[in-house]
Amino acid sequence: MTAYFEIRNLAVSFRTFEGIHPVLKIEHLAIERGETYGLVGESGAGKTVLALTILGLLPKPAGIIHSGEIWFDGDDLLKKSEQELASAYRGKRLAMIFQDPMSTLNPVFTIGQQIERVIEQHQGLKGAARTRRAVELLDMVKLPDAKNVLRKYPHELSGGQRQRVIIAIALSCGAEFLIADEPTRNLDVTIQAGILKLIDELQKSLRISVLFIANNVSLVNVFCKNVGILYRGKLVEEGPSALVTRQPQHPYTQTLISAIPRDKSEKLRFANIKIKPEAPQGCPFYSRCPIGVEQCMQGEPMLEPVEDQQHRAACFLVKRD
Ligand SMILES: Nc1ncnc2c1ncn2[C@@H]1O[C@H](COP(=O)(O)OP(=O)(O)O)[C@@H](O)[C@H]1O
Ligand code: SF4
Ligand SMILES: [Mg+2]
Known about the structure:
Layout: E1 5-16, E2 19-31, E3 36-40, H1 47-55, E4 63-72, E5 75-76, H2 82-89, E6 94-97, H3 101-104, H4 111-123, H5 127-140, H6 146-150, H7 159-170, E7 177-181, H8 189-206, E8 209-214, E9 226-231, E10 234-240, H9 241-246, H10 251-258, H11 264-271, E11 304-305, E12 312-313
The chain binds adenosine-5'-diphosphate, iron/sulfur cluster and magnesium ion (MG).
């Protein structure tokens, strides 16, 4: 039995001028129907590559999937042809929103033209019915004065308004699984909160599942049931968000959480870490780990249950029982 959404033994690399560069190695990640899962990692950790791999959009031939299964509602997406993914999954059942709304919206067409084109393509609606549906979608993402917004060009909207339009377009075809790749990254903090609240409300009202990708752990702990911490393409800690964020076990998660400023002493604790040499055979975090020991250079720690038995961490020094 697989979960509603489940990744198994996924290994992805990129072919570069310097050779094959491993980017992702995820042994297991599962999301239940109707759950919001938060995936957190710093820039370059492999978050976008994971999103693209799920959707079958990994750039080819540079991107190589060495192994793995990505189960979605009983089917392995990695076994689907490009034609099947395009006609039956992407946009229809799986939707994605990107961090930069301007790269998704075309600056030379009005919002109305862009939303209505998608509605016509996927739902076959025309004329007044098509416009009515567009207005409904803008209402759904809480954009006031929808009729007026439809007449505007992307540059006439604020960043937050544009991101709402993108969410409306992404969900226009009734997708049941949404991948939100750092949707608030380029927005002001005050606007970020509104977009997060909107995604949370839509997840509940539409009963969709969400893979919410962020580079900051403080964005996910409020509304994600489970959280995974990605470091250099590997999950180093995973479990219920309250446990991972309040009792982080892996030194990397602790670093991320202490980077959310609380008091001066905590900031200092991690400010003086001496960068050590890489340990090619050992723990991927060794070079930056404040507590790493000789043993950490010898082998790679597995993602295994920690003392509370409810969440998992990949570190030799965490307490297991
Ligand atoms: N088209 C590509 N060719 C080669 N390497 C790439 C390509 N896209 C991404 N990468 C590499 O894959 C790694 C993960 O990138 P990415 O998934 O974009 O990180 P994140 O989204 O977590 O910031 C990075 O080291 C990046 O340089
Ligand atoms: S295994 Fe060692 S180097 Fe890796 S995170 Fe744990 S203590 Fe640090
Ligand atoms: Mg990214």
